[in-house]
Amino acid sequence: MPPSPCALCKVNRALILRPKDHSKLCRPCFLSTFEAEIHHTITSSRLFERGERIAIGASGGKDSTVLASVLKTLNERYDYGVELILLSIDEGIRGYRDDSLETVKRNAQQYGMPLEILGYDELYGWTMDQVVEQVGKRGNCTYCGVFRRQALDRGAAKLGVKHVVTGHNADDVAETVLMNLLRGDLPRLSRTTSIVTSTPSLSADGAGKNTNIKRSKPLKYTYEKEIVLYAHHKNLDYFSTECIYSPEAFRGSARALIKNLERVRPSAILDVVRSGEDMAKLVPGSDEGCGGVCASAVPAGEEEEGGCGSANGRSSGGEMATMEDQLSQNEAAKANGLEVEITSSKIKKSEAPLPLTVGKSRKVPKASQPRKEPKKQVMGQCKKCGYLSSQEICKACVLLEGLNKNRPKNHIEVGYEQEKDVNGATEAMKQLDVGAG
């Protein structure tokens, strides 16, 4: 059987079967198509403004590494006129984050971007190793997710940056949409499906003035498998080890279902994302009009797409790691003159679809009973740290209070403290060493 030609250029030999639509492309056409689609997402959504300083949330994994590489390429090719900075959060996980940060440092040199690293120990007085030692592995991702979201905002404020981009991809968004549907939590769809959200917080100078830290997801419509393909064919340097504290969570069930749907229907991922966007507009009291600002107060520990940003953590059973190994084997086959195609795993014939079951009928509410409208959250600021919260005390401060109560007194503790200046303005987001010496 002769090799298949590229579906676009009709000249080169097709080496890649795109997971998104199963079109057969050569390497140059795939890379250019991949970059063109992200450029279209950026321009159609008007994510960037000329002269803007943008911080890339860099973990060293495939998503953030590809994001940094693509943004550098597109910024130079299309003259966005933006300044790119790498912002990394050190959770304090030995054997995982310390190794991935070495990858980020190499990327900073390779891409010629400045790098800022901010640690949990510096901000909260706790590393994740210490948190897990005290609370155990069960539920530790809640602490990490809440702390990490605030850490990114605080890092951006420290750099004087008002825009943070993250590597959340289409798979991550589809998983989150499905999780909210399975839990019947439709009001959160506005934030989880929005490509841009804002986080009002205090300015870095402590003057008590509100500043909006904009967050965006340029890879929102990009498949995870295509990110792996792009990283492979561009020979990008990234870290591919899963977080050692990543437990089995409800997101894993949604992830497995999304992957199974993708095998049957490749467009299923984008279909779920688009459906989530449409449903978000129909939910009473949704924050579609405010760009997700109000909904951004949702606790990030469970809802932040992709969680800790690990390379393999978002794929059930190490599927992306298996794909990376297959790519390496394909390179060897290519050297021997064999045709190479990247395909999705085939569904076993023995796996028959589950039969439909009819559950118990539910009581239909009487027409006389008025429907209760969902209560809209009123956004404010945490009294302790000044971070956006619908409660008097934000979730991060609540978690820190519980940790510090059980901490030995001979340890150095870092926390938040409220101080008022002569004008009565609240100075928040400070770290205070109360145990040194």
UniProtKB/TrEMBL annotation:
Pathway: tRNA modification; 5-methoxycarbonylmethyl-2-thiouridine-tRNA biosynthesis. Keywords: Cytoplasm, Hydrolase, RNA-binding, Transferase, tRNA processing, tRNA-binding. Residues 54-242 form the tRNA(Ile)-lysidine/2-thiocytidine synthase N-terminal domain. Its EC number is 2.7.7.-. Coiled coil: none annotated. Residues 380-409 form the Cytoplasmic tRNA 2-thiolation protein 1 C-terminal domain. It is found in: Cytoplasm. It holds the Pfam family zn-ribbon_14. It is an enzyme of class 2 (transferase). Its main location: cytoplasm. GO terms for cellular component: cytosolic tRNA wobble base thiouridylase complex; mitochondrion. GO terms for biological process: protein urmylation; tRNA wobble position uridine thiolation. GO terms for molecular function: hydrolase activity; nucleotidyltransferase activity; tRNA binding. Plays a central role in 2-thiolation of mcm(5)S(2)U at tRNA wobble positions of tRNA(Lys), tRNA(Glu) and tRNA(Gln). Directly binds tRNAs and probably acts by catalyzing adenylation of tRNAs, an intermediate required for 2-thiolation. It is unclear whether it acts as a sulfurtransferase that transfers sulfur from thiocarboxylated URM1 onto the uridine of tRNAs at wobble position. Prior mcm(5) tRNA modification by the elongator complex is required for 2-thiolation. May also be involved in protein urmylation. Belongs to the TtcA family. CTU1/NCS6/ATPBD3 subfamily. PANTHER family: ATPASES OF THE PP SUPERFAMILY-RELATED, CYTOPLASMIC TRNA 2-THIOLATION PROTEIN 1. This is Cytoplasmic tRNA 2-thiolation protein 1. It comes from Bimuria novae-zelandiae CBS 107.79. The lineage of its organism: Eukaryota, Fungi, Dikarya, Ascomycota, Pezizomycotina.
